[in-house]
Amino acid sequence: MNNKNPLKNRKKVAILLFFGTILLLVVFAGRIAFIMVKGEVNGEDLSQNLNNLYTRSSVLEANRGTIYDVGGESVAMDATSYSLVAVLTDKWSNAEELQHVTDKQKTAEALEKHISMSKEEILIKLNQEDLDQVEFGEAGKNLSYDTKKDIEEENLPGIVFEETPTRLYPNGIFASHLVGYAALPSGEKEDVSSTDLTGMMGIELAYDDILKGTDGKTIYQKDSFGYVIPNSKVETTEPVNGDDIYLTIDKRMQVYMENVMSEIDEKYDPAMATATLINPETGAIIAASQRPTFNGTTKEGIDQLWQNLLVENTYEPGSTMKILTLAAAVSEGVFDPNEYFKSGVKNVSGGPIHDHDPNGWGTISYLEGLARSSNVAFANLMEKMSPETWKEYMDAFGIGQTTDSGLANEAKGSVAFNYPLEQANTAFGQGLTVTAFQMLQAFTAVANDGQMMKPQFISKIVDSDTGEETVIEPEVVGEPISEEVADQTLEYLKEVVYNKNGTGVGYQIDGYEIAAKTGTAEIVNPETKQYYSGGTNYIYSVAAMVPADDPKLILYITVKQPKIKDGSTTGSGVVKEIYHPIMKRALEYLALGEEEDAEANSVEMPKATGISKEEALKSLEDTQLNVTVVGNGDTIVQQLPLPNETTIENQRIVLMTNGAMTMPDMMGWSKNDVLKVSEITGLEFTFEGEGYVVSQSLEPNANMHGADKITIVLETPQE
Question: Do residue 231 and residue 275 come from a single domain?
Answer without folding.
Answer: no
